[in-house]
Amino acid sequence: MSVEVSKLPSGLTVITDTMPHLETAALGVWAGVGGRDEKPDEHGISHLLEHMAFKGTERRSSREIVEEIEAVGGDLNAATSTETTAYYARVMKDDVPLALDVLSDIVSHPTFVTEELEREKSVIEQEIGAAQDTPDDVVFEYLSELCYPDQPIGRSLLGTTATLKTFNRDSLRNYLATHYRGPNMVVAAAGAVDHERVVAEASERFAGFDAAPAPQPVPAIFGNGGARVVHRELEQAHLTMALEGLPQTDPALFSLQAFTNILGGGMSSRLFQEVREKRGLCYSIYTFHAPHADTGFFGLYTGTDPADAPEMMEVIADVINDAVETLADAEIARAKAQMKAGLLMALESCSSRAEQLARHILAYGRPLGVDELVARIEAVTRESTRDAARTLLARSKPAVVALGSGRGLETAAAHAETLCRPKVSYH
Question: Which CATH class is domain 226-418?
Answer without folding.
Answer: alpha beta
